[in-house]
Amino acid sequence: MTRQYRIASVPGDGIGPEVIAAGLEVLDAVASRDGGFSLAVDHYDWGSDRYRKHGAFMPADALAWLRTADAIYFGAVGDPNIPDHITLWGLRLPICQGLDQYANVRPTRILPGVTSPLRDAGPGDLDWMIIRENSEGEYAGQGGRTHRGLPEEVATETSIFTRRGVERIMRFAFETARSRPRRHLTVVTKSNAQRHGMVFWDEIAALVSHDYKDVTWDKELVDAMTMRMVRRPRSLDTVVATNLHADILSDLAAALAGSLGIAPTGNIDPERRSPSMFEPIHGSAFDITGKGIANPVGTFWTGAMMLEHLGEKAAADLLMRAVEQVCAAGILSPDLGGSATTQAVTKAVVEAVRGMNR
Ligand SMILES: NC(=O)c1ccc[n+]([C@@H]2O[C@H](COP(=O)([O-])OP(=O)(O)OC[C@H]3O[C@@H](n4cnc5c(N)ncnc54)[C@H](O)[C@@H]3O)[C@@H](O)[C@H]2O)c1
Known about the structure:
Blueprint: E1 3-12, H1 16-34, E2 37-43, H2 48-54, H3 62-67, E3 71-76, H4 84-98, E4 103-109, E5 127-133, E6 137-146, E7 154-160, H5 163-179, E8 184-189, H6 197-209, E9 216-221, H7 222-231, E10 238-241, H8 243-256, E11 264-268, E12 276-280, H9 297-309, H10 313-328, H11 342-355
Parallel strand pairs: 1-2, 1-3, 3-12, 5-10, 8-9, 8-10
Antiparallel strand pairs: 4-5, 4-11, 6-7, 11-12
Bound molecules: nicotinamide-adenine-dinucleotide.
């Protein structure tokens, strides 16, 4: 009996459908090569086109549909004619928050064949696991606007830090650090300027650290962190940061590893009460939509994360080895300085998967 997993595919907007189609093709090849499992994919056409037609990005019972899946494979959301806060709060954030996928996991490393903009950094010199708090903080959605259009107009955007929310992400970060060879965690903060929420964040990090004596840890202000990522990439391993800080730092991390197009992420519910959601970290990339040149590597890598989350570690490793082999062979899309199309990279990875030893 093969193991079967139900995948909810939500390609979304822009290059989302292009990279998700490529990702599903590669995952299908991995499942065939492995032989031990199969993927049953449900396709959901949620996104900006649906919003234009029906006034909502997804149906009212969308979360109930998603809960029937073992994992969600997500592309991107964003439309040139709809404000970004409407698209983000219409699709991606209601899924992450509604399913309480509170740990956003963002691995970054320089793949073989990929050149980092950092002069001296090659594979092995930059190998990070960024953990982003994904349920509260600056993106909790608390705030409002009053006296619209008047000189007295006021807008507030309140960051929310709860003991439960901070403690669970710190525990997840220390656990992640413990599972990696270097066993080192960097806690990113801004407690010099933000003396309530961020001091609370630091205090809970210190408290949780007592349960992880085998993990070394340090603390870095977010501004200094940008410098450290560029100047001393080898000094970092696992990193934990708030929703906003990690959002920004992980784009920098992706660029330092070669391109936004290769970076993956998992929106994880560590307690597995709900399905977790896997997506490339990039957005809908209007500038290259429809040109056939979107880099699918971030979507492949997040596909490997999804397989690992489902318990298919051998298949996940096989997929990553295939991706690395293709990158090392110089089959790279334009964002990485190559000339390969999405289709050419996908075909090369499928062939590498077929030829790979288990
Ligand atoms: N998770 C998400 O759904 C998500 C994330 C970020 C941005 N967005 C949305 O996407 C839209 C565009 O945002 P943006 O331009 O700031 O970010 P973006 O990630 O879409 O693009 C930034 C730049 O990186 C390039 N790029 C991104 N992915 C690439 C890939 N796979 N291959 C090659 N090049 C790639 C783009 O061409 C662009 O030049 C906005 O509506 C934004 O709100 C959505």
